[in-house]
Amino acid sequence: MNNSKLFNRHDQSVAIWLLMCCVLVFCMVILGGVTRLTGSGLSMTDWRPLIGWLPPFSDAEWQRVFNLYQQSPEFLKINSYMDVSSFKGIFWLEYLHRLLGRLIGIAFLVPFLFFLIKGYIKAHEWPKYFLMFILGGLQGVLGWYMVKSGLIDNPFVSQYRLSAHLSAAFIIYAYMLWVAMSLLFPSKGNQTHPWYKRSLMLTALTSITIISGGFVAGLKAGKIYNTFPLMGDSLIPPGTMALKPLWRNFFENMTTVQLDHRILAIFTFIVIVGYWVKSRKANLPARSKPAVNALLCVATLQVALGISTLLMSVPVFLASSHQAIAMILLTILLYILHSLRRV
């Protein structure tokens, strides 16, 4: 068999594996969002990454786990009414979230070793995959670091740690997706398309908007000012600069954080509309054009979901959908960016 065809087949196999890992990470992010929205994230108060993958089976084991939870600030300050039966309702989501994290590690490591032994992955590309594995492990540690912030005095996780955990998940997802696309769509030239820089800037703007959404989630800032376009009776409500020093308002003030996310989301949408309008006359690669159309459609849906989520006081389904569409939006932008990198 021709060597180039063999390597192409190998690259396709590796790319499909990476895309499957991306799907798992996508599911992990959504499940994590549902876990947070249902108040289940602090139900497991210990972290045993290697031996803690089995759930409680016996009544005695359930009681042991529940006893640990009863020592947490969430139980003492919020859920003191719970018994073992009601505790199980919040335990399972967090358990499944952690179990999926372990499964992702296995789904990455086992095929990676297979491809490595079989020579499917070229030696000079090994560092890319080692980095993916390291990032995945660090993400697990970061997840526990986030949960731990809600197990000390305050029964809520730090919005800084939650945003870092969410951002890390998006980075891992984006990195694996980019490597997969590079295997499926090898570079044809040495020059980037003129639209590459503006697409990169749009991707950066969208990423910042997503991170700001992480702070909204961490502070539960979507629960206040459930009106649109006004926040209460005004565009800029009182108290937006109440904290000192002033920079804290952008990360710790619920009112300011929601206002920031509104402004960023609307601005990002306007930029996407402008990007789409100008793309009509641009000489874009063939595979970029449908993606730009999809970008506008998904961005419109995302804005509608965001407003609906706000007006309805953050129902679980809408809020989870809003997070899922954010990942889809980023996926489309990365696809467009990749199609413009070297043409």
Briefly say what this structure is.
By secondary structure, the protein is mainly alpha-helical.
Largest sheet properties: none
Percent strand: under 5%
Relative helix content:
55-70%
**Count of individual domains:** 2
The pLDDT mean sits at 93
Q: Give the uncertain stretches in residue-range form.
A: none
Structural class: mainly alpha
Compressed to H and E, one letter per element, the order equals: HHHHHHHHHHH
- Helix tally? 11
Distance between the termini: 28 Å
Number of E strands: 0
Description:
- The protein has 343 residues and is an all-alpha fold.
- It has two domains: 1-186, no CATH class; 189-343, no CATH class.
- 69% of the residues lie in helices and 0% in strands.
- The protein contains eleven helices and no strands.
- The chain has helices at 3-37, 59-70, 73-77, 84-118, 126-148, 159-184, 196-219, 249-252, 254-279, 289-311, 316-339.
- Helix 7 runs antiparallel to helix 11 (316-339).
- It is flat and about 65 Å long.
Layout: helices, strands, pairs:
Elements: H1 3-37, H2 59-70, H3 73-77, H4 84-118, H5 126-148, H6 159-184, H7 196-219, H8 249-252, H9 254-279, H10 289-311, H11 316-339
Helix pairs in contact: 1-4, 1-6, 1-11, 4-5, 5-6, 6-7, 6-11, 7-9, 7-11, 9-10, 10-11
